[in-house]
Amino acid sequence: MQLDDIDRQIIHATQAGLPLVAEPYQAIAEQLGLTAEDVMQRMAKMQQQGVIRRIAAVPNHYKIGYHYNGMTVWDVEEEHVHRLGQRVAELPFVSHCYQRPRHLPDWPYNLFAMVHAKTEQDAERQIAVIAELLGEDVRRQAVLYSTKILKKTGLRIAG
Amino acid sequence: MDDTDKLIINQLQKGFPICESPYRQVAEHIGIAEDELLNRLQTLLDDGVLSRFGPMYHAEQMGGALTLAALKVPEERFDEVAEIVNGFQEVAHNYARNHTLNMWFVLATERPEQVESVIEQIERQAGLTVYNMPKIREYYVGLQLEA
To answer: Which of A9, A49, B16, B142 could lock A55 by a disulfide, CB 3.0 to 4.6 Å apart?
Structure first.
């Protein structure tokens, strides 16, 4: 989608968050010298086009009880990675699933799947389900748990 | 965090309407007053229970780029390097993880060529190699976490 200057101004005004006032779109409009109608139409269009994934709350995983946030990584045969990635992505507890490049020799893993659990046992159960699904096509695997959130701001564009 | 907070967190992860009085609409759906929703939402943000609330922009759909990258940071330099990495506005997320590659961050840039330039700057300022792992294929991004 081609963004114009006004779209960019709206993105810039809302990337840190939506105003917590009764009429938030009106508030953004006033700040930018637009009408609320214009702001709503443009944001709806950006949402339709996928520029806005969604307007939503992002919880801090830890603070809502998810202490085991594991990036599970797998070294699978290149010829199987696409088929396996699609199957892993269908598991209900997987939040992200990607094929990514290896960096040999340090990093042999090419399939990534994120899991989130409130207990270590739950996390291990989830990882075991992935391992079973991947079966003999896995050569090596690792789980990298996050130990600290260092930054979580989302995308920022310059003003 | 009480049951009403949990309702708010779960509801607002699903999305938020674009209309004149969106908070009133969500508050009615949850069964609380609009003011209460606004106050609780402010508290959840102030307390860091919510990292953010608002539109989530998609760098690639804007014509930009996204990548996941990792660093192998000597333990004694961890805080210093975190500060360098976090100082780039293109760094959208950064996590410490229990591996020799112990710092993992997401770059979201407006233009694709900025990825390479930010990586070069991080490598120079931190004096460390960045392991760049742009996605080859995306199979799924989603899932809401129930509070």
So the answer is: B16
Tell me which residue in A21, A148, A152 faces B96 most closely, judged by beta carbons: A148
- Give which of A71, A55, A116 is closest to B145, Cα–Cα: A116
Tokens coding B60: 């690639």
Q: Which domains does chain A have, with CATH numbers?
A: 5-48 (1.10.10), 68-145 (3.30.70.920)
Asked if the Cβ–Cβ distance from A50 to B58 is below 8 Å, we say yes
Count of beta carbons in the 10 Å neighbourhood of residue A115: 26
| Alpha-carbon distances, residue A139 vs A110, A131, A135 (angstroms) | 11, 11, 10
Contacts of B57 in chain A (CB under 8 A): 11, 15, 51-53, 154-155, 157
Interface ipTM: 0.91
d(CA A146, CA B23): 33
For residues B101 and A106, the answer to whether their CB atoms sit within 8 Å is yes
User: Does residue B72 contact residue B129 with C-beta atoms inside 8 Å?
Assistant: yes
The rounded distance, in Å, linking the Cα atoms of A44 and A37 is: 10
Provide φ and ψ at B55, rounded to 5°. -70, 140
> Per residue in B89-110, pLDDT tens?
999 999 999 999 999 999 999 8
Report H helices in chain B.
3-14, 22-30, 34-46, 78-86, 113-126
- Whether the link from the prior residue into A101 is cis, omega within 30° of 0, is no
pLDDT in tens, A102-122: 999 999 999 999 999 999 999
Which member of B53, B90, B145 has the closest CB to residue A116?
B145
